[in-house]
Design brief:
Radius of gyration: 17 Å
Structural class: alpha+beta
Helix content: 25-40%
Protein name: dITP/XTP pyrophosphatase
Shape: globular
GO molecular function: dITP diphosphatase activity; ITP diphosphatase activity; metal ion binding; nucleotide binding; ribonucleoside triphosphate phosphatase activity; XTP diphosphatase activity
CATH class: Alpha Beta
Low-confidence stretches: none
Number of strands: 6
Subunit structure: Homodimer.
Order of helices and strands: EHEHEHEEEHH
Strand content: 15-25%
Mean pLDDT: 96
Bound molecules: 2'-deoxyinosine 5'-triphosphate, magnesium ion
Number of helices: 5
InterPro entries: dITP/XTP_pyrophosphatase (IPR020922), ITPase-like_fam (IPR029001), RdgB/HAM1 (IPR002637)
Catalytic activity: XTP + H2O = XMP + diphosphate + H(+); dITP + H2O = dIMP + diphosphate + H(+); ITP + H2O = IMP + diphosphate + H(+)
């Protein structure tokens, strides 16, 4: 079995990657699995690409092995693109998923259903020692509901209805979510690129 390192501390992402890599027989190791505590990496970029590169390159430098990082978030048209790259800390430094999604619902209180358009964005950065960092992006279009629904997933999943679905991403099993997710689409791009190498 092959192993890849994903430079994340987010348990929800780790579960998504476990689901995505399971059919390929690839074991996912995250920063949560390492014996030493990895300090939080400051995400000072203003784009998903910049932040993904910061995380991938920091961990690649430290361990001198190939690393993937994921920077992702929810982009809401009626909120001028917020929370965007600030999705994790939208309602404050404590990175509270519930508070974050409530803040989005509050911001959309007076916005009609047809204008509640949003997309999830995922940028994967691959950093290898001595090589230029590579980026792949995936997006998943949808709309924001009026209230949270569903117990699966993480983050903003309970308020996000992918286009064509009557269920939120949190009402889908991990397998269903990751057939259509932004993370899936970014990973497909990455796999296509790997095959071309
Ligand atoms: O599939 C998803 N379903 C629901 N919500 C999602 C998803 N994908 C990203 N999100 C949200 C969660 C978090 O509020 C932000 C990611 O922020 P982001 O900085 O990339 O991750 P993080 O700080 O939680 O972990 P880390 O930087 O260690 O990977 O977007
Ligand atoms: Mg982060």
């Amino acid at each position: 079995m092959k192993e890849i390192i994903i430079a994340t501390k987010n348990r929800g992402k780790v579960k998504d990657f476990d689901t995505l890599f399971a059919p390929l027989n690839i074991k996912v190791t995250s920063l949560l699995d390492l014996p030493e505590e990895i300090e939080d990496i400051e995400e000072t970029g203003t784009t998903f690409e910049e932040n993904a590169a910061i995380k991938a390159e920091a961990i690649c430098e430290k361990f001198r092995v190939p690393v993937i990082a994921d920077d992702s978030g929810l982009v809401v048209d009626a909120l001028n693109g917020a929370p965007g790259v600030y999705s994790a800390r939208y309602a404050g430094e404590q990175k509270d998923d519930q508070a974050n999604l409530q803040k989005v619902l509050k911001g959309l209180e007076d916005v009609a259903q047809e204008k509640r358009i949003a997309r999830f964005v995922c940028v994967l950065a691959v950093a290898k020692p001595g090589e230029v960092t590579v980026f792949k992006r995936g997006e998943c279009e949808g709309t924001i509901g009026k209230e949270p629904a569903g117990e699966f997933g993480f983050g903003y999943d309970p308020i996000f209805y992918p286009t064509g679905s009557k269920r939120t991403m949190a009402q889908m099993t991990p397998e269903e979510k990751n057939q259509i997710s932004h993370r899936r689409k970014a990973l497909d791009q990455l796999m296509n690129w790997v095959k071309e190498q």
